[in-house]
Write a structure and sequence with these properties.
Strand content: under 5%
Number of helices: 8
Distance between the termini: 21 Å
Helix content: over 70%
Low-confidence stretches: none
Number of strands: 0
Radius of gyration: 20 Å
Shape: globular
């Protein structure tokens, strides 16, 4: 019921940017003066990075005179996928490094942990896609997006109040769990 209305709203290209800039500005006005500008500029940098990655993807997928050359198409798609994964890996790596510093300051342990984590997540995702598991659980992707929305909301709210990590984790697990349960129920 909610998602059908959000799909119509999300079909418009600029809605996400307008909503994000509006949220950034709203929180900017309530933050202390020393933190407000840093917060706002970090948010704008995130929006710009997202749009650059999207632009690169669009340029790589654009139709041109080389469209009939399969090698060019494969190379463009491969480069676009590589750039996208690099940006995605970089965003997760920053988080992973911060988490790893809690356990160790040894660069080899940190690098090894990040490599193992990246290999595990990619291997698991590939296996789930190949086995068709993800298509069997039709609401799992929806649950993941709701969990991401919750995480984003908590990140915004945490600029004003401290929110314990256990709440963030519990809400994410709850959304994924509900999506899994709904998927199993829908299969019956």
């Amino acid at each position: 019921m909610i998602e059908s209305k959000l799909v119509k709203l999300g079909a418009r290209q600029s809605v996400g940017i307008i909503l994000t800039v509006g949220l950034l500005y709203t929180f900017y006005t309530y933050l202390p003066e020393g933190e407000a500008l840093k917060f706002f500029m970090a948010g704008i940098a995130g929006i710009v990075t997202h749009e650059i990655v999207k632009l690169i993807g669009d340029l790589m997928n654009s139709e041109d005179e080389d469209e009939n050359n399969a090698t060019v198409v494969v190379a463009k798609n491969g480069l676009a996928s590589f750039l996208y994964l690099e940006v995605l890996d970089a965003s997760f790596s920053f988080d992973g490094v911060l988490g790893a510093l809690v356990i160790s300051t040894d660069i080899f342990i940190i690098a090894g942990g990040l490599a193992i984590g990246a290999m595990f997540v990619r291997s698991m995702t590939i296996q789930l896609v190949k086995s068709g598991t993800l298509s069997e659980y039709k609401y799992l992707e929806h649950g993941a997006f709701w969990a991401i929305l919750t995480l984003a909301s908590i990140m915004f709210a945490s600029t004003m109040v401290h929110i314990p990590e256990v709440i963030t984790g519990a809400l994410s697990v709850a959304f994924i769990g509900l999506a899994f349960w709904s998927s199993v129920k829908a299969k019956d």
